[in-house]
Amino acid sequence: MRPARSTYLFALAVIPSLMVWTSEVFAQQKLGYPPGRGSYVRYCGSCHGDDGRGNGPKAASLNPKPADLTQLAKKSGGNFPTGRVTRILDGSEAIPAHGSAKQPVWGHVFGAGEYTAGGNPGPQTVASERIQLIMQYLESIQEK
């Protein structure tokens, strides 16, 4: 029995995405960075700053100013707000500066609604992994 055509389409769509994501993770680890730092800097650093304190190069032109992401746990009673951070990153919790739920700033990167031509989830898996990596990084930079 031969696999369905959608299986081939799924593989053609997912494998290159996984290869890019995997090489990104290995490059970060090879340089000694904590998991997720590279993705964080790429997608969040321009506003929130490489250190997460809300001092990125675009911060001066934004109103309101970007949040200090090193204070998330402190502002949540000492516990890192994993659920809320996930919702913000995937666009399901609206933050005006991040765009709308229908079109978040990183919709093409973290969006949950992406599917391959065969109707199978594809880039969604990569998006979920990126969200998890960024959350790990954010959790690692929390001030006590």
Structure write-up:
The protein is mainly alpha-helical. Helix content is 50%, strand content 0%. It has helices at residues 5-30, 37-43, 45-48, 72-75, 82-90, 107-110, 123-140. The longest helix has 26 residues, at 5-30. It is globular. It starts with a helix and ends with a helix. The mean pLDDT is 76.
What's the helix and strand layout?
Layout: H1 5-30, H2 37-43, H3 45-48, H4 72-75, H5 82-90, H6 107-110, H7 123-140
Task: Describe the structure concisely for a colleague.
With 144 residues, this protein is mostly helical. The chain contains 7 helices and no strands. The protein starts with a helix and ends with a helix.
Strand content: under 5%
Summing up helix and strand content along with how strands pair, one would put the structural category as mainly alpha
Overall strand count: 0
Helix content: 40-55%
Task: Tell me the span between the first and last alpha carbons.
Answer: 57 Å
Mean pLDDT value: 76
Radius of gyration: 17 Å
Q: What is the molecular shape?
A: globular
- Model regions low in confidence, pLDDT < 50 over at least 5 residues: none
> What's the helix count?
7
* Element pattern in H and E: HHHHHHH
* Largest sheet: number of strands, sense, barrel closure: none
